[in-house]
Amino acid sequence: xxxxxxxxxxxxxxxxxxLARKILEFxxxxxxxxxxxxxxxxxxxxxDFSILLLDINMPVMDGxxxxxxxxxxxxxxxxAVPIVAITGNxxxxxxxxxxxxxxxxxxxxxxxxxxxxxxxxxLTDN
Length: 126
Description:
By secondary structure, the protein is of the alpha/beta class. It is built from 6 helices and 5 strands, in the order E-H-E-H-E-H-H-E-H-E-H.
C-alpha cells in the first residue's frame, strides 16, 4: 500500500468508533472520526477520504441524510467516494433503500470486524 488510505468514521458511539479505529489502523488506514453527519460535511469541505463509514442513527444529522448530501456535492470526486452504512437497525430500511440513498454497502451492528476490514479493503482497492 503506497499512500495511506484515509477513512472517515462518523459514529456517535465512542466504543464502536474506537474499536473500528484500532482495527483499521492495524490495517494501515489513516482514521479520522467524528460524531455526526454535519461534522462529516464540514470535514469533507477541507479534506479528501478514500471511504466514509456512516452510522445511520446519529444526533444532528443521521447517516441517511448525510449520504444524500455527500452524493449531491458539486465536486464529482467527493460525491463519488465509497460510503458504507453502519446500523443497529437494519430492519428499519431495506437494502434497496440503502442503495437508493447512495450507500455502497451496509454493515450491521454488532459489527463483524472481519467483515468491516473486508468491505473497506474491497471499496478502497481501486
